[in-house]
Amino acid sequence: MPNSDHILIVDDQKTNQMILERILERADYRTSSVSSGGEALEFVRRQAPDLILLDIMMPDMDGYSVLQAIRATAGLPFIPIMFVTAKHSTADTVTGLDSGADDYLSKPVNRDELLARVRVLLRLKDSRRALQREREHLSLLYRIAQTLHRSLDVDQVLAETLHTIGEVLGATKGSVLLLDDEGRVWRRILFRPNLPPAEADEAVRTVLRDGLAAHALQKNQIQIVADAANDERWQKLPNDDAVAGSALAMPLRSHHSEHSVGVLVLFNPRTGYFDRDIEPLVSALSDQISVALSNASLYTRLREAEDSRDSFIQMLTHDLRSPLAGMIGCFDALATTPLNEDGRYFVELGFRAGAVQRRLIDDLLDVYKAEAGRLTLDLDTVTLSRLGELVAEVVDGSALEAGLALAIDLPHEPPALLDENKMTRVICNLVSNGIKWTPRGGTVRVSGGVSAADGWVELVVADSGRGIAPDDLDHIFEKFYQGRAHSSVRGTGLGLTFCALVVEAHGGTIKATSTLGAGTTMTIRIPWKA
């Protein structure tokens, strides 16, 4: 069987060409011969040989010039070059090797020595080209990683995957399917994008049941079909006129587990285009793609869950506000009619309950806005005494009903730059908590001031209630945390979270200190801006 290695002989003497051809061809090497340096360069640009045997003394262009020109030609694989020349002094040998030749042999050549040196140089060629391919593969994998990790949007990553891998492996078309934990397809790009939905669904079911994709997923191994027409793993779909001479399918493995998260199938119309030689590269590409798609899938699912949650919160708050507005409207209408003392009392209770419910809905929506980075402040110059007046309007009735003394002592000057509505709600929440946990006869006090010298606004809400257990104190600003206090009075666990988020949005801090049986003090400090 002829050797697959191809050797180019460059010598201006036909006799020398014939001698070398005879020796090499009898050893089953393929040969080509040219008679000048120019012809050698033209040959190499058309077809890179595996080895060049190069004479030095030639007219027009000597062997040294030919060697330098070949080494300077971009895009060539490594080609070992051996000088075969009549120049035989030690100085000639040193000059030849120093010029960049890989070996040097003097004429007349000895058959066995020539063949031994040829074998050594071809082994060198194989090693150097293998290293070169490895470097190219690593560079390619790096570029692909950079491309695939530019985005966390799974649809964009899928499209980038097909485009990039198709270019790298020479595929003309491709499909990619992503699977969820139950093995159902949740994202797909098909090589026939214009299929009607029903036909596309049936095509996906077929390839996942009987096709090349099914074999890749079941065996969790890369599947290569060299001749699609004669391989039972390849399923030709109805009305599919595309020619697939060869194909490959790579399972996309989760880097969190052993399960496959999808499969990528590539096609080429040429029979034998895909073969086992590309399997190491395909395996490395599969790992790169799997990591990118796993990350993108996780991000996309979290984003979709976040979008669903936001939609749910928006819908919930809207659905809660609508009947609440109706109820408050009814109480408002009742308040304009003649009522006895009991009637007026119950209407007032209805107004208060509606106000509390409205604050809870606003807190719920603002907490989720803040977590999504969408909480905005409507800053304006506000006096602290104005905040106190607004708080009193909301909570005076509740304090009176609970049998508590409410003391509000906030100065009129200097003013501060605050979101009046949200900061009022913060103080109302803190006062309402104080009212909730303070026995009858107790006190809830709101105080504070502005220190222009220190550059801080301080607001303090203190009560004489039950206090907060030390184990609970570090958690009270966490969402939905309700503590372990034994009481029939339970909240949503969102009020203090809302307070902390609003204060943080102002660039400030909120701190709780408490003594069991003596009461709790909430201290807010925010930067002062006039």
The CATH level-2 architecture of the largest domain is identified as: 2-Layer Sandwich
Strand content: 15-25%
Sequence stretches where pLDDT stays below 50 over 5 or more residues: 486-490
Q: Overall pLDDT, averaged?
A: 83
Number of helices: 14
Radius of gyration: 41 Å
CATH topology label of the largest domain: Heat Shock Protein 90
Fraction in helix:
40-55%
**DSSP, total strands:** 17
Q: How many domains make up the coordinates? A: 4
| Level-1 CATH class name of the largest domain | Alpha Beta
**Distance between the amino and carboxyl termini:** 93 Å
CATH superfamily of the largest domain: Histidine kinase-like ATPase, C-terminal domain
Could you say which structural class the secondary elements and strand pairing correspond to?
A: alpha/beta
- Read across the widest sheet, the strand sequence of neighbours is 2-1-3-4-5
Major sheet details: 5 strands, parallel
Shape: elongated
